[in-house]
Design goal:
Elements lengths: L1 H26 L12 E2 L6 E2 L2 H11 L18 H22 L2 H4 L5 H12 L3 E3 L6 H5 L3 E3 L4 E10 L4 E9 L4 H9 L6 H6 L1 H4 L6 E6 L10 E3 L6 H5 L3 E3 L3 E6 L8 E4 L7 E5 L11 E4 L8 E4 L23
Parallel strand pairs: 3-9, 5-10
Antiparallel strand pairs: 1-2, 4-5, 5-6, 7-8, 7-10, 11-12, 12-13, 13-14
């Protein structure tokens, strides 16, 4: 009998608590319109509102998601059964998410396919080091590069960045025997380029042809010492990509000569091997630049990048850099 009385009293207390909260909300004014009495409270920021339009206005103006922060700090003095239950459910959801990722067929799928291995093998024949990202990466999904066996050439997926016009364009299935000048003619040529592209790339169209420069970022380097290869517009894609590292597909930065100082160059060192290069700032700055030695590795070696005069501890390749599948024994 006493237990029934205790449970009834606890039930009455909980009902009173709910009613008190409702009274508090009804006494408050809507935080959005400021005229009506509040009927709702946002779980995310605890702001009061009176109607659905005010709730939508609040979310659009403040950017609030309306979701309660399940990891917010709660003092021990205010920690109750509801907080305990919320934490328990949060841990359950986390465990369920981890378990579902281990069952994801995309993750269980082999990292490289027969086609991917054939691409890397044929790239080595052309003195090009091709690296492929794991399945699921956006760069891997959008890559349309393939190797034509009968023709004996690559058909590349290319991305062109035009920083002076803030434009990005993508070319699909470009044969590697085409020169960069032929490829860029559909973008920056005064008459042969497409009208829409010509209008957007006016800064390049009106510039003299010798003022247009093309750079490609050198891979296998510390992000803090980024360097670029300057490409020859008169040479083919195959010749420009020789002895370079490409992650999925080439990405070219097309810039004007006046902005070349933003691209620190990587130039071949005299008497060095094909994978050893020195990095200097471009001559457009008017100085000799910082001589930096960058050893682009062959398979099975460790890349290192440092000052030509001494230790290169600051420029060593950090852990987590992309490695080729053949280096991992795949």
């Amino acid at each position: 009998m006493e237990s029934l009385l205790v449970s009834k009293s606890e039930h009455d207390d909980s009902v009173d608590e709910v009613q008190r909260k409702k009274r508090k909300i009804s006494l408050a004014i809507c935080g959005t319109c400021g005229t009506e009495e509040a009927r709702y409270r946002c779980p995310g920021c605890l702001k009061h509102s009176c109607s659905l339009p005010c709730v939508k206005t609040h979310k659009s103006e403040s950017g609030c998601s309306g979701m309660r922060d399940r990891t917010a700090f709660v003092p021990i003095s205010k920690f109750d059964e509801m907080n305990l239950l919320s934490d328990y459910r949060f841990l359950e959801d986390t465990s369920r998410l981890v378990d579902s990722t281990h069952r994801d067929p995309l993750i269980l799928r082999p990292r490289t396919t027969k086609c991917a291995k054939m691409l890397m093998r044929n790239a080595q024949r052309f003195n090009l080091r091709l690296k492929l990202l794991p399945p699921g990466f956006s760069r891997r999904c959008e890559n349309s590069t393939f190797f034509h066996k009968k023709a004996g050439q690559f058909f590349w997926h290319l991305k062109f960045l035009f920083p002076q016009s803030d434009a990005v364009f993508t070319e699909r299935r470009v044969p590697d025997d085409r020169t960069l000048q032929q490829i860029l003619s559909s973008y920056v040529h005064p008459t042969e380029s497409e009208p829409i592209r010509r209008q957007r790339l006016k800064a390049y169209v009106h510039a003299p042809p010798d003022q247009v420069k093309v750079f490609m970022k050198a891979e296998n380097r510390n992000p803090n010492c980024a360097r670029y290869h300057e490409l020859d517009l008169q040479k083919s894609l195959r010749e420009n990509l020789r002895f370079k590292v490409v992650v999925e597909y080439p990405e070219f930065h097309v810039t004007l000569r006046d902005h070349c100082q933003n691209y620190a160059l990587v130039t071949q060192e005299s008497g060095a091997g094909p994978w050893v290069a020195t990095a200097t700032r471009p001559a457009a700055r008017g100085d000799e630049g910082d001589a930096v030695m960058c050893h682009a590795p062959l398979a099975g070696t460790t890349p290192r990048c440092g000052s030509a005069g001494g230790g290169g501890g600051d420029d060593e390749l950090e852990e987590g850099e992309i490695r080729g599948d053949e280096e991992e024994g795949v």
